[in-house]
Write a structure and sequence with these properties.
Blueprint (H helix, E strand, L loop, with lengths): L1 H15 L4 H19 L6 H20 L4 H21 L9 H9 L10 H12 L8 H19 L1 H14 L1
Helix pairs in contact: 1-2, 1-3, 2-3, 3-4, 5-8, 6-7, 7-8
């Protein structure tokens, strides 16, 4: 959480001009301390590994926002690489390491109780999509468009079916 808060503070500072350096650094330090403790943990779960690697990436991106963060950025990129190899070596099931075919199967059980998408949103999506064909100038555009319409049709049945259909087209495109 601290990695996300630090990244958010650095981002807000960049886009608003407000001085949030102390807030960003406060959360960055806590995130690095927490990550160091998590790295030394022995019995890690896949969720622990995903959170740890996600924090590492957030800290890396935060360093790219910092005015003096160039060296830090390169250290963090190297750290992400080393951590990735360490976590892969542990062989724990992590979402970060799934290929796109396995990802939906990994997530399917977690998606069973998805709330239904409001009918108005699905209908609005379908209406918006109907405005697109005038922009198409290649056969691939038409094919992808048809696939998106299939996702919308599946969303009318259930969120899970829509998510499943979207996962199917992601494998193709």
């Amino acid at each position: 959480m601290h990695a996300v808060l630090g990244l958010a503070a650095s981002h807000l500072q960049l886009i608003t001009g407000q001085d949030l350096t102390s807030v960003a650094m406060y959360h960055r330090v806590l995130a690095i301390q927490g990550s160091n403790m998590a790295i030394s943990k022995k019995d890690r779960t896949g969720a622990d590994g995903d959170a740890l690697l996600g924090s590492c990436y957030a800290l890396t991106f935060q360093s790219s926002y910092m005015s003096d963060g160039m060296a830090d950025f390169f250290y963090m990129v190297h750290g992400c690489s080393m951590l990735t190899y360490q976590l892969k070596g542990e062989g724990i099931p992590m979402a970060f390491f799934l290929d796109k075919i396995d990802h939906f199967e990994f997530m399917k059980g977690r998606l069973m109780d998805l709330p239904e998408i409001h009918k108005e949103l699905v209908d609005s999506c379908e209406i918006s999509l109907t405005a697109l064909p005038v922009l198409f100038n290649r056969p691939e555009h038409v094919e992808f468009y048809k696939s998106l319409l299939d996702v919308v049709d599946a969303m009318k049945i259930s969120s899970l079916k829509g998510t499943s259909r979207y996962a199917d087209i992601r494998q193709v495109y």
